[in-house]
Amino acid sequence: MDHPRVPVRPLAHESLSAFEHFPDARPEVLLTASMGQDGTHCLLVTRTADGLGVRPTVTAAEPHVGLGTDGVLIGQDSGGGHLCRTREGDDGVIVEAGEFLPEGWGFVGYTPGFVDDGRILVVAAEEQWAEEGTHLLLDARTLRPLAALDYPRPQGVTAVPLGDGTWLTRDGESLRRWTTA
User: Fold this and answer.
1) To bridge 133 with a disulfide, which of 27, 83, 125, 144 should be the other Cys (CB 3.0-4.6 Å)?
2) Nearest to 72 by CA among 140, 23, 145, 144
């Protein structure tokens, strides 16, 4: 791929345990539950004075897997062929994998999300069930590539953006937190 390379550096290396919340204390949590061939339920859950508030996302046609601080949702189709960006009241943005990935590649890992307000992290690979992939930073508004991440050693297809400029990767029993250098 012909995207600029951005070096990254680890912030922490921990044993894998529980991950309980996002560090930016966003008011909503996105809950996506696949129903197999019957579709996907995508709900926004908030804490209210009476307990939990639950409401459906703008659309449930695709699994939403990323939630921005301003209510923007990022969805990835189950085949990895495209990403979509939606927010209630705005026109959506859809980008096909073939627009900037090599032929036959798609989005994998089902964890694209917001690194910060301006960047989304996605993983792309040649096969849907690949064990390693290329991690890309995309512009949060246009979904166009900004850079490919340059890790000190290959990372898998799991990259969980935390919304505070960092993200997590998992390698066997190890959990690493990263940021751009």
Assistant:
1) 125
2) 140
Task: Please say whether the beta carbons of 124 and 133 come within 8 A.
Answer: yes
Nearest to 122 by CA among 90, 89, 104, 100: 100
Residue 94 has pLDDT above 70, yes or no: yes
The predicted-structure confidence for 58-78, as pLDDT tens digits, reads as follows: 555 555 566 676 777 787 777
How far does Cα 67 stand from its chain's mean position? 8
What 3 state SS string does 53-67 have?
EEEECCCCCCCEEEE
pLDDT of 162: 83
Closest CA to 145 of 99, 82, 94, 180: 99
Closest residue by Cα to residue 72 from 23, 122, 134, 143: 143
